[in-house]
Design a protein that fits this description.
- The structure is a single chain.
- With 209 residues, the chain is mainly alpha-helical.
- It folds into two domains: 52 residues, Homeodomain-like (Arc Repressor Mutant, subunit A, Orthogonal Bundle); 126 residues, Tetracycline Repressor, domain 2, CATH 1.10.357.
- Helix 4 runs parallel beside helix 7 and helix 7 runs antiparallel to helix 8.
- The protein is flat, with a radius of gyration of 25 Å.
- It starts with 22 loop residues before the first helix and ends in a 9-residue tail after the last helix.
């Protein structure tokens, strides 16, 4: 029997399927982008371009840039700041937490960047959660939360003013900037001591370390 003269058409190769992105992967990509350019928070469009996907795909995971930046801020603050663990002495732990928060904001541009975004509620929530855990060692629950908020207001307020002064004097030379930061450091020490002294007066006698 004669062979057929009709040649078989080559079968088209199936395109490889791409695993769907997760929220964690998107946040990780946004974090890389932030480290490359701390002064510019990542946008949905630029992030989608870097990930090689269409921007609408990101909206399956985040309602918009505000939610994305909020989640990025939360995960970054959890990872980048050396949050102290409760030791039994609320004052020692609160002192360590306040200093760790100030140092991280001043020394790490990507952490400082979150203060410039419109997500202060995220920063406050993360910081207060850790602080309340510490304060609960020696304060009643309601007071612990209130004192945690008070301490965070002090730290963030001080750091915002300090960052502004350091930026304003950035052209004065390294020695002048270092001296200015030392002066702010001394001011922070004295003010933090006063804040904690005031709180110590309200500690329950049975819970004093």
């Amino acid at each position: 029997m004669a062979s057929s003269s009709v040649e078989e058409m080559p079968r088209a190769r199936a395109k490889p399927t791409r695993a769907p992105l997760t929220r964690e992967q998107i946040v990780a990509a946004a974090r890389v982008k932030l480290q490359e350019s701390p002064e510019h928070p990542p946008t949905m469009r630029s992030l989608a371009r870097d990930l090689g996907i269409a921007a609408p795909s990101l909206y399956w995971h985040f309602s918009g840039q505000a939610e994305l930046l909020g989640e990025l801020a939360r995960t970054m603050l959890e990872d980048e700041i050396a949050w102290p663990q409760p030791s039994g002495d609320w004052r020692v732990d609160a002192d360590l937490l306040a200093r760790a928060l100030r140092s991280s904001i001043l020394d790490r541009p990507e952490v400082a960047a979150v203060l410039d975004w419109n997500v202060p509620f995220v920063i406050a929530a993360v910081a207060r959660e850790h602080c309340t855990t510490i304060m609960s060692q020696n304060f009643e629950d309601g007071v612990a939360a209130e004192r945690s908020t008070q301490l965070m207001f002090f730290v963030f307020g001080h750091v915002i003013v300090e960052r502004g002064a350091l930026r304003h004097n950035a052209g004065a030379g390294d020695a002048a900037v270092a001296e200015l930061r030392d002066r702010f450091g001394d001011m922070f020490d004295r003010s933090l001591r006063s804040v904690l002294d005031g709180m110590a007066a309200e500690v329950l006698p049975a819970r004093r370390p």
